[in-house]
Design brief:
alpha/beta, 9 helices, Spore Coat Polysaccharide Biosynthesis Protein SpsA, Chain A, about 270 residues, globular, seven-stranded mixed β-sheet
């Protein structure tokens, strides 16, 4: 039996979310870090899913291999390949903590917004269900946030980590989109489009009312929102096992064109 939603996104407020100003001298920066207790901190793993019956169970097994305290929140985006039934079974087995079925397909961004609204963890991270990103990288991603140096940490596929060699033009497109985003946000990221963005839970839920993107525009939008909130952003190296279109990759050149619009829309 499908679990009904028990969390609703908060009412929309102003698009402006500000983090309190911090002292400018180095010693004060150290004193005013915002560390989390690593023994008590809970990671909210947000998993948007659409037609991933071949990989979802393997991905959840990888998620459970991590010793990090976590809650697993899955949002099924109206899958049509049997994924929904698999998720219902996994919920009953206790493999998933919270499950929501979108009544219609709305896109990855909408699924992530729903998952954020259902979250209660100290840190949020989006985990794709397609095996391209490895939860073994979480420790590196979370360290700057748990240490109190960062409000968000991006996992970059372009900092020299092991990665599957695939599409040349995809890598060029990613770099061009990242450059355009950096020009407008005044950040110096190497991989704005990465799925792996860890964010403090209180900050992510505060930004939720400002988020609008339904599809893959979530990546440039959340980057712009973090920049406008003057969040402390770190970037670390991760591994990446990209898949081919024959293996189920969904993003296309049309999403790349749309990303330009989203960058301009949310960064200006």
């Amino acid at each position: 039996m499908r679990e009904m939603p028990t969390f609703a996104p908060p009412a929309r407020t102003s698009d402006s979310v500000k983090i309190p100003k911090r002292p400018v001298d180095a010693s004060s920066w150290i004193r005013h870090r915002t560390p989390l207790d690593p023994a008590a901190a809970v990671l909210s793993v947000l998993i948007p899913v659409y037609n991933e019956r071949n990989t979802i169970e393997a991905m959840l097994a990888m998620v459970h291999e991590s010793a990090i305290r976590k809650e697993i929140i899955v949002v099924d985006d109206a899958s049509t390949d049997g994924t929904s039934e698999i998720l219902d079974r996994l919920l009953l087995q206790g493999t998933i903590d919270r499950l929501y079925h979108q009544p219609v397909n709305r896109g990855k961004g909408a699924a992530i917004r729903q998952a954020i609204a259902m979250s209660a963890g100290d840190i949020l991270i989006v985990q794709d269900a397609d095996l391209e990103y490895d939860p073994q990288d979480w420790k590196t991603l979370l360290e700057p946030i748990i240490d109190g140096r960062a409000d968000a940490c991006f996992g970059s596929r372009f900092l020299g980590g092991p990665h599957r060699v695939l599409y040349f033009w995809h890598s060029i497109g990613n770099r061009l989109l990242t450059t355009l985003s950096n020009m407008l946000t005044n950040l110096n990221l190497t991989d704005m489009e990465t799925c792996y963005k860890a964010i403090r839970g209180d900050l992510g839920r505060a930004l939720l009312p400002t988020l609008r993107s339904n599809r893959f525009g979530f990546e440039p939008e959340i980057t712009a929102r973090l920049a406008k909130a003057e969040a402390r952003i770190y970037e670390v190296q991760i591994s990446y096992a990209g898949r081919t279109y024959g293996e189920g990759k969904k993003i296309t050149w049309k999403d790349g064109i749309a990303a330009i619009w989203h960058i301009l829309r949310f960064s200006l």
